[in-house]
Sequence to fold (375 residues):
Amino acid sequence: MAVIEGVMGLYDGCLDGTELGSTAHLAKVLNAPVVLVMDAKGLSRSAGAIVLGYKHFDREVKIEGVILNRVRSERHYTALKKSIESNCNVPVLGYLPLDGEIGLPERHLGLVPSAEQELSKATYQKIGKLLSATVDIDKLVNIASSTNDLSPFKKTVFTETHEQFNFRIAVAADEAFNFYYQDNLDLLELYGVELTYFSPLYDKYLPADIDGLYIGGGFPELHASMLAANTTMKESIRKAHKNGIAIYGECGGMMYLLEQLVDFKNNTHEMCRILKGTTKMENKRQGLGYVTVKTIQDTLLCSKGDIFKAHEFHWSSLHTSTETPYAYEVFKYGDNTPKRDGLIANRVLGSYCHIHFSTDLKLVKKFLYTIADRG
Fold:
C-alpha cells in the first residue's frame, strides 16, 4: 500500500485559485481514493458540515472515508460519526483519542524528520494498539484496494536515454541535510551518475574522486556549531571549489556555503565561505509555497532567460552586500515585485529554491554539462 500525504489542506495548492499542486489534484491524476483525517477537537455536529463541504467542493475527488483525530471520548465519537454519516454518506473509519503522549514532535519547518525522532518503541506500540482498537483497518485496506488504474499517459521523465555521464557526485546526507526530492537523485542515476553520500557533520573530508557536489536542504541552523567546528570538511569543500568541482547548494545547502549563519539565539557560526553573505534565523517564516523562477544570470543549472517552477520554505533571511549579483527573480502569485534569490560563484550555485528536476529536464542536463565542461 502506498500512502500519499499532502501538506496543508486537501484543496490547497498554488495561490492562483486553481487546484494545481494540491493533494486533490494529485488524487485525481492518480485516480486515488481520499481518506480525510480531521481534527475533531472542539467539534460535534459541525463535523458533518465540514465533511459535506469537502465532499461537494470538487465532486471529482473521491472522498471514501474519514478518520477523526483528537477525540475526547466514545460519546464524543458517537456524535461526530452520526453527524458525518447521516449527512454526508461518507463512512467514518474510526478515530484516535486525544492523547499528548502520541503527538509527533514539531519545530519551525514542520514535523521533526523521522530520522531524528526519539519516540520510544513503546510509543509506537501504543499508537499501533490504539489504531487497531479504534480504526477499521480492514475497511481502510479495502478503500486503498479500490484504486482504479491510471489514465493513459506518456512517459516523459524516466525514459530511456542515450546520454550517459560517467560522473561521481557527492551528496550531503545527515541530520543537517536531508531534504531531497528522490526523483532528483534517481534522475542523476538515470544519466549514469554514481552518487556517493557523505556527512558534513561527522566526516572529515569529502569522498575522493568526485566531479560534483550536491548539498540539499535541511536544518543547518540546528547543527551550526558542529558544522562550524568541522573545519577539515569546510576546507575540503573549499579545496574542491578551487579545483573546479561544480557545487549546488539548495536552501540549507546554500546556508552552509555562505560565510556565516546566525542561529535563533543570535550566535554567529562560520560556514564554508564560498558564497558571500550571511543567513540569519528569524522569529517568523520568511518563505513558503510554490514560486516561478526567472533566471537573470547564467548558472550551473540554467541559462539567462530560463523560467521554471520551484518551491520555497525557510525561516532565515539572506544578507549580502548591495553589489552582490543574484541569479534569480522569484515570483509568487499575487506579488507585484519579485524577490531576488540565487547566489553564484565560479561553478557554484546556492539558492532558497527547492527544484524538482523533472519540472524541466534541461535543469539536470545543464548541471551535468557544467560538470563535463570543467575546462
